[in-house]
Amino acid sequence: MSQNRLRIVLNVLVSMVNRKGQITLSDASKLFDLEEERLNDLVKVLVDNKILEVEYPASGEKILRKGEAVRSIIAAEEIKKKVDEVLDNADLEHKVGITAVEEILNEPPRKRPEEEMA
């Protein structure tokens, strides 16, 4: 995955949360074809900057919701601008860890369940 794809994934994720109100981390990881742990590492940057919030319900599934910094923003363009601003200022290699970012960038797509059965 390229740095550009990371930016796109995070922007699309925040845009989805804006439209739907919330999404589980596991659903987002399936949607973007990323390991849940890897996506969680990236989401931490957005949580630290109040773009997203994580709720830990009794069911155990992490739920992503809009954070304080974008809670009142509805326009997708404004949210994208805010996310890009955070990502421009975030040093992903130091916040997430150099090894984790390298692994995410080089991670091959996961096999879908139907491919594993074949």
Write the layout of secondary structure elements.
Layout: H1 3-20, E1 23-24, H2 25-32, H3 36-48, E2 52-55, E3 63-66, H4 76-89, H5 92-95, H6 98-106, H7 113-117
Antiparallel strand pairs: 1-3, 2-3
Structure report:
The protein is mainly alpha-helical and 118 residues long. It has one domain (3-107): Arc Repressor Mutant, subunit A. It has seven helices and three strands; from the N terminus they run H-E-H-H-E-E-H-H-H-H. It has helices at residues 3-20, 25-32, 36-48, 76-89, 92-95, 98-106, 113-117; strands at residues 23-24, 52-55, 63-66. A three-stranded antiparallel sheet has the order 1-3-2. It is globular and about 35 Å long. It starts with a helix and ends with a helix.
